[in-house]
Design goal:
Elements: E1 6-10, H1 15-26, E2 30-37, H2 44-55, E3 60-65, H3 88-91, H4 103-118, E4 122-124, H5 140-153, H6 155-158, E5 165-167, H7 175-184, H8 209-221
Parallel strand pairs: 1-2, 1-4, 2-3, 4-5
């Protein structure tokens, strides 16, 4: 595949999106990363996204400003406590308060717009349907539906110039499999950030759902998590 073939990669700065970026790089796409300042609790993940984009040699990294705090409805954008110390079985059951309403739909819409402008047929997103926190917009049927919609909703799609493919290379992997894949592809996980509720010192809390799933993934993979945690 020629390196001139472009892909837009949604890059949050977390473990999964960084691995998805590495997968796209391994397939020799020209990398166009997109991140969002959407009113989330902290900017640490955007700092991570910028470091990862630089380390992986992306061609261009956009950080888009939108403010989902005006909508609220999530522990990540509203005055709602982030759940802590939940059992893994509890994390996997139901849709938690850290769900941000329609977030992946919003992000994928921006990625689709940029892909159309770039002339790119490929979008990568690090969604996962196994070790995930109950989010409805991480399921294969959702991705399939968005892809079908995108082909109807764009000028390039209607004119037959875009044959959009939304790549979800991690969707059927466990967290430990994702970590092993990323390490094989050269991801420096010390650059990533996963915590929903880090302290003022920037340390991951070690107790929120995202931290617990990450720590379990590294333990199951038999690998050391290079991040520092307030509680571990």
């Amino acid at each position: 595949m020629s390196a001139s073939k472009k892909a837009v990669i949604l890059l949050s700065g977390g473990l999964d999106s960084s691995t998805a970026l590495a997968v796209a790089r391994s397939k020799e796409f020209a990398l166009y990363a997109m991140s969002f300042r959407y009113g989330q609790r902290h900017s640490l993940e955007l700092d991570s996204a910028s470091r990862i984009a630089a380390a992986m040699g992306v061609d261009k990294h956009l950080i888009i400003d939108i403010d989902l705090r005006a909508i609220g409805g999530s522990a990540l954008t509203d005055q709602v406590d982030v759940p802590k110390q939940r059992a893994v079985d509890e994390i996997a059951s139901g849709i938690p308060v850290t769900y941000v309403p329609a977030r992946n739909t919003i992000f994928l819409s921006f990625a689709l717009a940029w892909a159309e402008v770039l002339g790119a047929d490929d979008i990568f997103i690090g969604v996962n349907a196994l070790d995930y926190s109950g989010y409805p917009d991480c399921r294969p049927e959702y991705i399939d539906a968005f892809e079908r919609m995108a082909k109807l909703a764009t000028k390039a799609g209607v004119e037959g110039r875009m044959r959009l493919k939304i790549h979800t290379p991690l969707i059927a992997m466990t967290k430990s499999e994702i970590i092993k894949t990323g390490l094989e592809l050269g991801v420096d996980y010390s650059l990533t950030h996963s915590c929903y509720d880090p302290g003022a010192d920037g340390l991951a809390c070690g107790l929120c759902d995202s931290c617990l799933l990450r720590l379990k993934g590294f333990a199951d993979a038999g690998e050391h998590d290079p991040l520092s945690y307030s509680v571990r």
